[in-house]
């Protein structure tokens, strides 16, 4: 009987030791927890306002970072966006080689070979733009070039509404008359 008591105690202790996690195991779980990245391919995301589609975003790859301190979406392989007016008509298009959407700030930063076209056949080219949804504006502090059917204007700094229909260059450095009939994706 005494043997069975010791044997039972031994099994309980063995079970407790067998269920324990080493510090390395616990650290590994923390590392996996920090990773928290969802990956999606060939995505199409629609953004609407009052049941009207305002933006359609397409990207080959989206990385959704689930970090509670910095939730964000990254588009490392490029992004294409179509912007629509209140009537649902296509008003402008945007392309860039990468983008990051900050969820808390409700901003999107597009980088590398950024191009925007609008229905008036105006084209903006730059290396970085910030789309700020709460302020309903697009801006940049970098070099920008805007080509219209009549002119090419370049400079530093840029502000526009989200549809790229009301824009201005903050520090104009040059202007050139153009007879260029631009290609437009619209």
Provide a descriptive summary of the structure in words:
The chain has 186 residues and is an alpha+beta fold. The chain has one domain: Lipopolysaccharide (LPS) transport protein A like domain (lipopolysaccharide transport protein A fold), CATH 2.60.450. It has helices at 2-19, 23-35, and strands at 37-49, 52-65, 72-75, 79-84, 90-96, 98-102, 107-118, 123-132, 137-147, 151-161, 167-177. A six-stranded antiparallel barrel has the order 2-3-6-7-5-4. A hairpin with a 2-residue loop joins strand 1 and strand 2. The longest helix is centred in the N-terminal third of the chain and has 18 residues, at 2-19. The radius of gyration is 26 Å and the shape is globular. Mean pLDDT is 81; it is low at 3-19 and 25-33.
Could you write a compact summary of the structure shown?
The chain has helices at residues 2-19, 23-35, and strands at 37-49, 52-65, 72-75, 79-84, 90-96, 98-102, 107-118, 123-132, 137-147, 151-161, 167-177. The protein is 17% helix and 56% strand. It has a single domain, classed as Sandwich (lipopolysaccharide transport protein A fold), CATH 2.60.450.10.
Could you please say which CATH topology applies here? lipopolysaccharide transport protein A fold
Low-confidence stretches: 3-19, 25-33
What is the terminal-to-terminal distance? 89 Å
Give the beta-strand count. Answer: 11
CATH architecture: Sandwich
Placed side by side, the strands forming the largest sheet appear as 2-3-6-7-5-4
Short key terms for the protein model shown above:
disordered N terminus; 11 strands; 186 residues; 2 helices
